[in-house]
């Protein structure tokens, strides 16, 4: 599984990254987590608001932080 957090490094982006790492560990997933900060790469996903979550190339969330339950559903 490939997970990307899209964001320039704002506090919400950092929080999403921490939430994803916690959820991946809790669920026992084999995942590569990458934080994408390059604005051109972020825009290539047609994301207008960050933070955004991309799982296996599909944008699952943009512009807000998910609940813990919602995040786990995105990752399963």
Structure write-up:
This protein has 76 residues and is α+β, with helices and mostly antiparallel strands. It has one domain (2-75): Glutaredoxin, CATH 3.40.30. It has helices at residues 11-27, 39-43, 68-75, and strands at residues 2-6, 32-36, 52-55, 58-62. Strands 2-1-3-4 form a four-stranded mixed beta sheet. Helix 1 (11-27) packs across helix 3 (68-75). The longest helix has 17 residues, at 11-27. The radius of gyration is 11 Å and the shape is globular.
Properties at a glance:
about 80 residues, alpha+beta, Glutaredoxin, four-stranded mixed sheet, about 25% strand
β-strand amount: 25-35%
Distance between the termini: 10 Å
Order of strands, widest sheet: 2-1-3-4
Give the tally of structural domains.
1
Provide a quick synopsis of the model.
This protein has helices at 11-27, 39-43, 68-75, and strands spanning 2-6, 32-36, 52-55, 58-62. It is an alpha+beta fold. α1 packs across α3.
SSE blueprint and pairings:
Elements: E1 2-6, H1 11-27, E2 32-36, H2 39-43, E3 52-55, E4 58-62, H3 68-75
Parallel strand pairs: 1-2
Antiparallel strand pairs: 1-3, 3-4
